[in-house]
Amino acid sequence: MTTSDSMTPATSMKPIIVITPTVTQFCHQAWQINAKALYVENDDSKTYLITDMTPFHPVSHIWPDHPADRGFVNVGDVQYPVEDCLVGAIEQSTGKLHIAADIPVKRDAEGWAFVVVHQLPASASMIKVNDEVMLSVDKEYQASLSRGHSAGHIAFLALNKVLAESYWRKDADRKDPLGSYDFNSYAQVTSFVTPELCTDKYRLGKTLKKRGLNVADMLTNLDGIEADINQMIKGWLADSTPVAMRLEGEALTDSRYWEWQLDSDTLVSIPCGGTHIENTSELKSLSVKLTQLDDQHIEMLTHVIR
């Protein structure tokens, strides 16, 4: 979506304020912070608010697997719900905001600042640039997504490993962090995180068969593969092990990595922009369900059992 001509930036009658990239705090286990309003734009249905920093995780416009956080923005005694949280990019020479799919540049393009855009009700147009606001994330909702997202990573590592042991007839070029043939990378079509759940859809097409996956055998024994995955995950989660996010910077466009200390000798590192758990003890246990959708697609549901 773009900011329409009908939307009015609160700064339109003032000199252009250079907007800097949002300092993100959603990987820091921070759920409430005070911040400064840098940009406010509104129309009859909504208000867009950009602050200098935020604990809110926005939904990605490139790979929208992890939903936006929920929560509130307080200005003095007035509280506004955050209706959505989006990725935006501001062209610094003009101050024009572009949102989500209408962002015309790649990340870190010169002259552009990537920002977290908080979508508030139209009544929030009362917020002014330079106002101090308090941003409060729904901690429990974010935690439920974090568990679902980390569960999805653990499940696809187990899926890759089970398939690598019995269902590949060739040496695949791509390997995952555990050294298994990376079925997840080759075949994943979509991945969606919801509270306590990760839903992954995979395509078993001709290309995957040519790469060496025995698709027919895999589909025939889907129940057995599912059982092996669940058994493997049960072993992995028998001991509590740490999970951390490694950040290469605080900007939205800086790389972030999910890192899991599987055992004393194995550190798993996966590029990921979502929010996550800090220890596998938060998951209690997982239940993976594999379902054949049609001749070329399977679905993996990874439930967090608490």
TrEMBL record:
Metal-binding in keyword set: yes
Molecular function (Gene Ontology), one example: nucleotide binding
Alphabetized UniProt keyword annotations: Metal-binding, Zinc
InterPro entries: Alanyl-tRNA_Editing_Enzymes, Thr/Ala-tRNA-synth_IIc_edit
Keyword check for Transcription regulation: no
Domain of life: Bacteria
Protein name (record): Alanyl-tRNA editing protein
